[in-house]
Amino acid sequence: MANEEVLAPVSGSVWKVECTVGQDVNEGDILMILESMKMEIPVEAPATGKVSSLTVAEGDAVDEDAVLGVIAK
């Protein structure tokens, strides 16, 4: 089974996590919402599969291109 990393599109903080480990997701589903410069940026699933890990929690600060989680395809 291949894995696909979920990357932060911008630097900011994790405002809301919309998924859980073990959840089945489709490509394009919103996994979490980042807050950056008072804007909400949705983070979408890059592939269809199962959320195998989340490396952040609500309130965490993240850098652009940081790994937020992993989707097992």
UniProtKB/TrEMBL annotation:
<keyword id="KW-0092">Biotin</keyword>
<dbReference type="InterPro" id="IPR000089">
    <property type="entry name" value="Biotin_lipoyl"/>
</dbReference>
<dbReference type="InterPro" id="IPR011053">
    <property type="entry name" value="Single_hybrid_motif"/>
</dbReference>
<dbReference type="InterPro" id="IPR050709">
    <property type="entry name" value="Biotin_Carboxyl_Carrier/Decarb"/>
</dbReference>
<feature type="domain" description="Lipoyl-binding">
    <location>
        <begin position="1"/>
        <end position="72"/>
    </location>
</feature>
<dbReference type="Pfam" id="PF00364">
    <property type="entry name" value="Biotin_lipoyl"/>
</dbReference>
<protein>
    <submittedName>
        <fullName>Biotin/lipoyl-binding protein</fullName>
    </submittedName>
</protein>
